[in-house]
Amino acid sequence: MFYEMIVGCLIGLIFGITLEKSKVSEPAVIIGQFQFKRFIMLKVFLTAMITSVVVLNSMNYLGLFDIKLKDLNLVTNILGGGLLGTGIALSGACPGTMFAQMGSGYKDVFFTFGGGLVAAYLYNFFGPNVVSQFSSYSLGKTSLATLFKTTPTVIIGLIVIVNIIFLTIVEKIYPWKEELKS
């Protein structure tokens, strides 16, 4: 347990520094992403996703930890993601960037933090009932590899290749140096 806490703290520290240095934690950058005017956030998060999928699956393959599957329910994922995305677009903050914003001195983020606490409290009471209403849409504990009847390595390779191509195209259209100027 101590090892996991140290690794988690180090990853969190690296993530926070990356958010701050990349300017992804700035509310204008976050809101600009949702308005499809700035793509810094998209590029940083897709790069983080590529890195995460490779590192976590490598650690799983080496036996450093075991990846545990959760129920896949597209309805609750779409509803929850839509609700979270709406909150992010309106507030200019998300759970990941909120603490970087606090460290940078953005005072408005404390309203977002308070709203997150209220939402977590409400979810504690209403979430299980809402999720149970959509339980018939659950695909069970599954993965993309299982759904597409292939190996995790093939899925990881496809995720990495497709995202690198996509990132390259987005960077050509919206160079990061130009986005930082705006």
Report the sheet-strand fraction: under 5%
Query: How many helical stretches?
Result: 9
Strands of the largest sheet, in order across it? Answer: 1-2
Multimeric state: single chain
Low-confidence sequence ranges: none
What's the mean pLDDT score? 87
Helix content: over 70%
Can you count the beta strands? 2
- By helix and strand content, what is the structural category? mainly alpha
**H and E order:** HHHEHHHEHHH
Radius of gyration: 18 Å
Morphology:
globular
The CA-CA distance between the termini, in Å, is 44 Å
Main beta-sheet strand count, sense and barrel state:
2 strands, antiparallel
Task: Give your account of this protein's structure.
Helix content is 74%, strand content 4%. It contains nine helices and two strands. It has helices at 2-21, 27-34, 40-61, 74-91, 95-104, 109-133, 144-147, 152-173, 176-181, and strands spanning 71-73, 138-141. Strands 1-2 form a two-stranded antiparallel sheet. The model has no long low-confidence stretch (mean pLDDT 87).
